[in-house]
Design a protein that fits this description.
The protein is of the alpha/beta class. The protein contains 13 helices and 12 strands. A 4-stranded parallel sheet has the order 2-1-3-4, sandwiched between helices. The protein has a 4-stranded parallel sheet with strand order 6-5-7-8, with helices on both faces. A 4-stranded parallel sheet has the order 10-9-11-12, sandwiched between helices.
């Protein structure tokens, strides 16, 4: 992993967190977009039990034996863990860890789309809140979106909420199957910053580099990026896998900056170039508030971190999430 020497303050936080995890019977699940110090498993000297993309974390959440799950990611991900583990306490170190995609659409918006397009199946990207998911037919993550969209017989599908990811999917799906996607207008405020112009400039400066693009970048960026360059358009996992399989030594990363740290940790002999756009919501999670969350377990302060979802929403949201997991 990237961090080789840890300043004493970090080591003290690591030790305190590891001790409390044991005492309180808790596990830490962390997303690949966490800051590098949170992207170390216990095995490698850090504090996480599992590090993954949003699908990996959802699957892992179904296997947890501990009583408490500390979710080092954003709120919609912690909600998914809660829906899959209604009897466990799921805690997030900062409830303000939101997502511009998740907040772009409400349950009422989905109902309105369904009234406008009766009978058309609704696929919800997991970057939505539980009450929004509750009104949808199936969820998907960036890793399985294409396969899930392909699996429907219907020639029209509603895909929410990411317009750019929807347009990128649409391009593949329409060419393959003729299916049309009805889209919402949400965007990821991190990935939309990767413009065609910025990719063009980085490619000019690094003509030997391959390009790594997350589904959430605008479709014009995809077109510019692949012009005279090889690479991948896909999920976080697709990007990690692609780098592992490619013979290239240099890559331009169009995704969250700290995924660059993950990649560098996994492939130290390769170079990753990125303008370094960080997700402000992911960065709300720190070692300090992770420790505070553990300290709060079993005290009234736990409410500050506890993910609670009304029972009816939990039941309804479980259906599209389970369908997604069964699909995998
Ligand atoms: P992944 O599904 O690739 O983990 O993406 C999560 C996310 O928030 C992308 O911005
Ligand atoms: Fe949401 Fe974008 Fe942050 Fe992912 S990177 S959590 S999609 S705002």
């Amino acid at each position: 992993m990237l961090i080789e020497t840890h300043p004493p303050a970090i080591q003290e936080l690591y030790s305190a967190i590891r001790k409390l995890k044991q005492e309180k019977d808790a596990v830490v699940l962390a997303h690949y977009y966490m800051s590098p110090e949170l992207q170390l498993t216990e095995k490698d000297g850090g504090i996480a039990d599992f590090i993954g993309d949003s699908l990996g974390l959802s699957v892992e959440a179904t296997k947890v034996k501990a009583k408490h799950i500390i979710f080092c990611g954003v709120k919609f991900m912690a909600e998914t863990a809660k829906v899959l583990n209604p009897d466990k306490q799921v805690l997030i170190p900062d409830k303000e860890a939101g997502c511009s995609l998740a907040s772009s659409i409400t349950a009422e918006d989905v109902l309105e789309l369904k009234r406008k397009h009766p009978g058309v199946p609704v696929i919800a990207y997991v970057n939505t809140y539980a009450e929004t998911k509750a009104e949808c037919d199936i969820c998907c993550t960036s890793r399985n979106a294409l396969a899930i969209a392909r699996s429907f017989d219907s020639d029209t599908l509603i895909f929410i909420p990411d317009v750019y990811m929807g347009q990128n999917l649409q391009q593949k799906i329409e060419a393959e199957t003729g299916k049309k996607l009805i889209l919402w207008h949400g965007t990821c405020e991190v990935h939309e910053q990767f413009t065609g112009l910025s990719m063009e400039m980085m490619k000019k400066a690094n003509p030997d580099a391959e390009v790594l693009l997350h589904w959430e970048v605008p479709k014009e960026t995809v077109a510019t990026s692949f012009c005279e360059a090889k690479g991948v358009l896909g999920s976080t996992n697709d990007i990690l896998r692609y780098v592992g399989e490619s013979h290239a030594k240099k890559f331009i990363l169009a995704s969250e900056c700290d995924l660059g740290a993950t990649l560098k940790g996994m492939y130290p002999d390769k170079e990753f170039i990125t303008p370094c756009f960080k997700c402000p919501y992911m960065k709300k999670i720190t070692l300090q508030n992770t420790l505070a969350t553990l300290q709060a377990i079993g005290t009234p302060d736990a409410a500050k971190y506890d993910i609670s979802i009304p029972e009816e929403i939990m039941h309804k949201a479980y259906i599209p999430i389970k369908r997604m997991l069964d699909f995998a």
